[in-house]
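haha ok so turns out i had the wrong file open the whole time. this is the CORRECT one, sorry everyone. sequence first:
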Amino acid sequence: NLLGADLAAGGGTGSTDLFNGGKANVSGLELSAHHNLGDIVGWRASVPVRMSYSSTKAVFESSFESRFDPWGRVEKGDRLPYVAPHQLFTAVGVESGRLDVELSTVWISTMRTKAGNGIPQPSNRIDAHVVVDLAAEYALSDQVQLVASVRNLTDAVYMAARRPAGVRPGMPRTMLIGLSARF
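then structure:
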């Protein structure tokens, strides 16, 4: 059984109201692979390549009426909102001596923002989008590393959610710089 909660931390109004979603079935498949391309060609540097793909099917198994806006009037077999049916992650890096660099991408397919079936109306969906990140780490010593990353490297404009008060954009290009210490 599925239980929803209206929490500010989850994008809701913060009323803490609970909403019964009845029976639900969430199933899927995830595949992942990784390999060091540097080993294949005999390079001194490591060139790690990673990929993962997720396919998820999330459906309500009962019909009901809800005051919780993303659910509303639900028919058995309707898809759950905010569950992307497909996601793909890829990353390639270079690790050489004191410097590690990685470029990664995340693709998220179009997803519903309200329960239902078929192709959702534009006002009830978040379109597919790709976000590219770049991260680097330089070892200043065995215990201290300088770390930097650029999230959303291409400054892609995309929608992250439609709750609680309309369209919420994804994070714009953001640069982070810091030190990491290991004891």
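The first strand starts at residue 2 and ends at 5.
again sry for the mixup
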